[in-house]
Automatic annotation (TrEMBL):
<dbReference type="InterPro" id="IPR005116">
    <property type="entry name" value="Transp-assoc_OB_typ1"/>
</dbReference>
<dbReference type="InterPro" id="IPR008995">
    <property type="entry name" value="Mo/tungstate-bd_C_term_dom"/>
</dbReference>
<dbReference type="InterPro" id="IPR003725">
    <property type="entry name" value="ModE-bd_N"/>
</dbReference>
<dbReference type="InterPro" id="IPR036390">
    <property type="entry name" value="WH_DNA-bd_sf"/>
</dbReference>
<dbReference type="InterPro" id="IPR000847">
    <property type="entry name" value="LysR_HTH_N"/>
</dbReference>
<dbReference type="Pfam" id="PF00126">
    <property type="entry name" value="HTH_1"/>
</dbReference>
<keyword id="KW-0677">Repeat</keyword>
<feature type="domain" description="Mop">
    <location>
        <begin position="114"/>
        <end position="180"/>
    </location>
</feature>
<dbReference type="InterPro" id="IPR016462">
    <property type="entry name" value="ModE"/>
</dbReference>
<dbReference type="InterPro" id="IPR004606">
    <property type="entry name" value="Mop_domain"/>
</dbReference>
<comment type="similarity">
    <text>Belongs to the ModE family.</text>
</comment>
<protein>
    <submittedName>
        <fullName>Putative molybdate transport regulator ModE</fullName>
    </submittedName>
</protein>
<feature type="region of interest" description="Required for dimer formation and molybdate binding">
    <location>
        <begin position="115"/>
        <end position="123"/>
    </location>
</feature>
<dbReference type="InterPro" id="IPR036388">
    <property type="entry name" value="WH-like_DNA-bd_sf"/>
</dbReference>
<dbReference type="GO" id="GO:0030151">
    <property type="term" value="F:molybdenum ion binding"/>
</dbReference>
<keyword id="KW-0813">Transport</keyword>
<dbReference type="InterPro" id="IPR051815">
    <property type="entry name" value="Molybdate_resp_trans_reg"/>
</dbReference>
Amino acid sequence: MSLPTLLTQHIVRRPQRIALLQHIAEQGSITRAAKSAGLSYKAAWDAIDELNNLAQSPLVERSVGGKGGGGAKLSAEGERVLRLYQRLQALQAQVLEAAEDTSDLDLLSRLMLRTSARNQLHGKVRAVESQGCNDLIVLELPEGLQLQAQITHDSTLRLELLPGTEVVALIKAGWLDVQAAGAQVTTGHNCLRGTIEQILDAEDGPCEVRIALPNGQTLCALAEPLLLKTLELKESSTVQVQFSPSHVLIGTPL
């Protein structure tokens, strides 16, 4: 199975996060790997979630908690990606030498922008359904999970979306409605079910809730502490998140 184009682009423009794979392989701990990579513990978690969500299968296998902040090791796919990264490192110097001007690199950097959306889920277009001026894009995530995005027909044409097109679904954490498993789903809304992997309390404001999906991808949602307490939701609880198709943005390779 070939490495997705979107993950390959991520390797090229986000070397610090990809290098985290090397540190995990060496340290066997998220806490120690984060320190070696010069990242905060939270940034390391974010990096792992992003890498796992963009890959066809999780790159990092981890266990939450423990004396060292949680054990971690590379999956077979993670080891393969690390080998690719190491080969790209050897080519990087050649690319920099080939650049005629530093402005060339600045231009490429602008063309490959980062996004503030916490959730970036790799998937493929399964179907495009016309809804007047808008289109409903049915996306298939790894392991057969599905979600829908509503975008304008012009956007569908501009992104050249067809069945089989690889995309990234972008969803802001604040757009996810955390609910107890089995809660009533609003007609036409997306609903993904998973298990609360971690709850990060905030000093003032909503908590950050990391939810592990059954396909190995991870969602990050925001929820008020009172809501979590009322619903008796805690780490290891089964939950569902609901969100409108209009809150799903779609990104494609340049």
